[in-house]
Please model this.
Amino acid sequence: MHRIMIQRIQSLFLFGVALCMALMLYFPLWEKDNDAHTQKKALDVYHLHTYSLESGEPGNWREENAQPVYYIAVTASLAALLALYSIFIFRNRKLQMKIGAVNALVIMITVVVAVYLIYSGEKELGQGNKGTFYPGFYLPLGALIFNSLANRFIRKDDKLVRSVDRIR
Model:
């Protein structure tokens, strides 16, 4: 039976990665409206929404289109699952380091895809107004920081075990 090594700091960092990427599934990423405030775009991990002002009243938006972008949710979920799996394989530090590197790549893909969709939304609406970035956009950046810290401490543990093995 596998036990979780909670006392290892990298386990806490890996849990931080999983938590950040899981929370990303519940928070919006970005929103922006055009200069005339008649059209708005919003991005979450499931859809890129396009809204238009319905009756000229501020705040009365009608959704015109919801382009599915489920691949952001899939990559975020994959990153969370990889981090959780990595916690349970603490006895195999080499595999843990490889999974950490793959996870960094998956998180970066998530960020790049989100930035590309935001850029394309900005281009459609015009460059006048600034968009609003929500917590969902920043969570993968936090996950990258947690992931790099976890990888650093996993390498540190590996070096310590190797040095102890040389002494024997």
About this structure: The chain has one domain: 9-163. The beta strands are 30-33, 39-43, 47-53, 61-68, 132-133.
